[in-house]
Amino acid sequence: MRGAGIGAAEEKQRIEIRRGEEYMKKALLIVLAIALAPFSAFAVDGVVLINQSTVLAAGGFPYNIATPGSYKLSGNLIVQQAGVSGIQISASNVTLDLNGFMISGPPCTTAFCALTSSGITVPNVQTSIIVRNGTISGFGSQLSLFLATCLAEDLILRSVPAPGGALSRNSAFGVSSIVRHVITDGQLEFNCPAIGIENSATFLVRDGVATSCFILSNLGTVI
């Protein structure tokens, strides 16, 4: 009888140990899921979702897109520090859908800030960049895509007043780009020949001549 009692106690102890191990495994999985959530923010269609939390989890601004693919904002992005860009695209074949949200940053009051901060910037030569469907406000320049062959469409670009006057640059686009349905209180700057500039704002030609750009139904004038 005594041996049977010892055996039953040992079996009960083994069951309790197994239960404890299962509980620890489940708890660990929950902790890992919470910790990795900002880095695994994918929509069901494989699009990478970007919001303030994922940006901060990845190290802060500028948020660097270094892999080809589709990206989409799932919330507004707010850059607090002057002279810092919002999103940097360091790869070709990237589609960035602002999804109706806004990327905002403080206005620039120094020449250095104006040269170094953009809502979205492409710092190196890239091709097949698409940016669409949202608002970019503030910064030294809203879009700095002068080194990119890109499509920019359905965008609102606006500067932000600052005490003493804000310093800003024009939003710029590279050779063979398409820009359509872009509204801005500044100017759009192009490296012609561009494929098309349609239903957009006043723009100027940085390199090349305006006649080498296809220009259709724009609201402003060619400078």
Give the helices and strands as they follow along the chain. Answer: HEHEEEEEEHEEEEEEEEEE
| Number of helices, where a helix is a run of at least 4 consecutive DSSP H or I residues | 3
What separation lies between the terminal Cα atoms? 102 Å
Query: Beta-strand level of the residues, as a percent range?
Result: 35-45%
The count of domains is 2
Structural shape: elongated
| Quaternary status | single chain
- Low-pLDDT runs of 5+ residues are 29-40, 204-212, 216-223
SS-derived structural category: alpha/beta
Helical proportion? 10-25%
Mean pLDDT: 77
Number of beta strands: 17
Q: How many whole angstroms does the radius of gyration measure?
A: 25 Å
The largest sheet is: 10 strands, parallel
Task: Describe the overall structure.
- The structure is a single chain.
- This protein has helices spanning 2-36, 52-57, 111-116; strands spanning 48-50, 63-65, 69-73, 77-78, 87-89, 94-97, 102-107, 118-121, 126-139, 141-145, 148-158, 171-173, 178-184, 188-191, 196-198, 203-207, 215-216.
- The protein has 223 residues and is of the alpha/beta class.
- It has 2 domains: 1-40; 42-216.
- The longest helix is centred in the N-terminal third of the chain and has 35 residues, at 2-36.
- The chain starts with a helix and ends in a 7-residue tail after the last strand.
- 33% of the residues are buried.
- The model is unreliable at 29-40, 204-212 and 216-223 (pLDDT under 50).
